[in-house]
Design a protein that fits this description.
Layout lengths: L1 H4 L1 H33 L15 H20 L1 H30 L8 H9 L4 H4 L3
Helix pairs in contact: 2-3, 3-4
Length: 133
């Protein structure tokens, strides 16, 4: 690419690419920190907030970024090992969230089973769907 467009344009491209990828990484660290904030009862910013609401959330974002960066910096073999170690935790978390979702929907309470809850809370007829042909 340097032979075609020159060294200066490659540097500009690299700088813009670096800024965009750093912004994307920061956004993903914030998403991860939001999940940890929910677990540890740390207040996280709302969607309408421009800046974080407290220092605990900022520390959580930095810790998420540090862990991710350290794991990536160690190398690909460590990333695969880390993924192998975290897979059972992820599966256990998905099962836990599934069971909690069923509990929050009230399935099994008052004799109401899955289809009863789905027909009352999920598959409701709205004005828009009633007029469709």
């Amino acid at each position: 690419m340097e032979r075609v467009v020159g060294r200066k344009l490659v540097l500009v491209y690299d700088a813009v690419s670096c800024i965009l990828l750093a912004g994307l990484a920061g956004a993903m660290f914030t998403v991860s920190a939001t999940a940890f904030a929910a677990i540890f009862n740390i207040s996280s910013p709302e969607l309408s907030d421009l800046y974080p609401s407290n220092w605990q959330f900022c520390v959580t974002v930095v810790i998420c970024g540090l862990v991710t960066t350290i794991v990536a910096a160690i190398g690909f073999s460590f990333v695969t090992l880390f993924g192998d170690l975290m897979s059972p935790v992820l599966i256990a978390g998905i099962i836990y969230l599934f069971v909690e979702s069923l509990r929050m929907l009230g399935i099994g309470e008052d004799g109401c089973h899955l289809w009863c809850v789905l027909s009352e809370k999920v598959y409701t007829v709205s004005e828009f769907s009633a007029h469709r042909v």
